[in-house]
Amino acid sequence: MPFKPSRPQPVTPEAPVAIPRPLLTQRWLDLAFVHWAVDPAAVAELLPAGTVPDTLDGATYVGLVAFRMHRVGWLGLPGVPYLGTFPETNVRLYSVDAQGRRGVVFRSLDASRLVPVLMGRAGFGLPYVWSRMAVSAEGDTLTYTSTRRWPGPRGAHSRLVVRPGALIEEPTELEHFLTARWGLHHTFFGAAAYLPNDHPRWRLHRAELIACEEDLLVAAGLPAPADEPVSVLYSPGVPVRFGRPSRPAGIPTP
């Protein structure tokens, strides 16, 4: 029987808790956020145990987020310039747990470096996949492409072309809801857990979606979008820190 969080934590543009000793550090650069509204019932069974779809005005969302990962580092060590730097595109849903912690759930994470893909799959159980990818700029547009290699479905692809617009001085409630996410819900080694993160407040720009050709959502078990996206955003990026996963009761894992 699905539960209802009694009191979801408020959506805040800054991280509610700082992470003093991060497990992982990285930078996310040149992000394109493309979102569609979906019925919560259509995605509820795709979320980890102990979570339900997070909603705003009765709707939840599926996001296609493309960006450049830059210099992933472990345990406070300097970020790795080659293996830790690569394009990434993820398909994500929005979740909340019984403690009211809001987060995201990744249905897939395409990345162009095989070693980080293997580490993400083996170390965290995340659905990383190895893909041929590129991020390029031409004039005032950015193009993000990916074609899946392994483990599949082989050939699943995306091509996003966006034109960033003016800086958003005050994001809407929906824009905060879609971007101000301070953790990841996932099943780590057979148990539900929450991986917190922190970063500075987003600098967001509304963006024009010039082209969107993709089948990553269907490959992730989601219905193909029937309508245009409800939100298209761009950000130049933020430095990010991840803490250790915690169990449902909030106790950090060893």
TrEMBL record:
Pfam families: DUF2071. This is DUF2071 domain-containing protein. PANTHER family: DUF2071 DOMAIN-CONTAINING PROTEIN, DUF2071 FAMILY PROTEIN. InterPro entries: ADC_dom_sf, DUF2071. It comes from the Bacteria. It comes from Streptomyces oryzae.
